[in-house]
Amino acid sequence: MLGKMTLTQAGDLRVHTYTAPEDGWQVNSHIVELPSQLMVIDAQYLLPHAREVLAYADQLHKPIARLYISHYHPDHLLGAVAFSAPIYALAEVSAKIEAVGDRVAREEHETLGNVVAGRAARPNHVQKTGVETIEGMLVDFIRIQHAETQDALMAGFPEHGILITQDLVYNRVHAMVGERSFDAWEAVLESKKMLGYDKILPGHGAPGGKDLCVRMQQYLTTAREMFTQSVDGDDMKDKMMNAFPGYGGLGMLDQQKRFLFPVPSLTEPLRLN
User: Fold this and answer.
1) I need a labelling partner for 155 at 20 to 30 A (CA). Which of 17, 191, 206, 271 fits?
2) How would you list the strands of the sheet with 162-170, edge to edge?
3) What's the CATH code, domain 4-260?
4) Which DSSP helix (H) or strand (E) runs through 32?
5) Is the pTM higher than 0.85?
6) pLDDT per residue rounded down to tens, the chain (273 residues)
């Protein structure tokens, strides 16, 4: 297996986390195992990694009933073309994928070739916020705004103390800060620390505890300082690598350069949102 699997268990709930290798930016897909079905949260960036998620899920001998896309960024979305399950997303995320998903896929495909999908799968179900009961399991679907991106979905399991944050939290992996929402992102982290979950399953890197939120706030504070001190994207990449030695996701530092330090032109500037 190219990626790594980590099992998080609390009572009768088991969550299998697939973490991609470095070329997949250590992005996570979480397979939530229910009594007779599976829920998968996020679909990977590269197709070989998406296929590994599917192969592992097949060994659990339960169908994937739902695939959730937490937000529109390519590392969480583009592997969805490999899935046959119904796709769920917030209405705002669905609209964003409809507007820019194929362009994002095309750009990534042109750069990396056939390991990346050339189109973006569309969500076909709208996920509303609030608590639902799925196969007897309480699931709290939470919308977060103005953190890594404008709109994103988290899934909490309040009876089991497990919160799947996706890209609100990274664990020892460089974060995409291209939208420069440092203060708002830190504020969201501060508010979510009070929700009472003790197991945090991040969007990138290994699952952990509540300390991941504190560490993420510290990362954002440093990233904001490095951004104000950097002359360009390469300079900021060097500064962040020195500040966080051993962190993965170096491709993320390259990906965000054009958003943090756009090259002036006569055309409309690049926009992450």
Assistant:
1) 271
2) 130-134, 137-145, 151-157, 162-170, 199-204
3) 3.60.15.10
4) strand 28-33
5) yes
6) 999 999 999 999 999 999 999 999 999 999 999 999 999 999 999 999 999 999 999 999 999 999 999 999 999 999 999 999 999 999 999 999 999 999 999 999 999 999 999 999 999 999 999 999 999 999 999 999 999 999 999 999 999 999 999 999 999 999 999 999 999 999 999 988 768 899 999 999 999 999 999 999 999 999 999 999 999 999 999 999 999 999 999 999 999 999 999 987 544 444 554
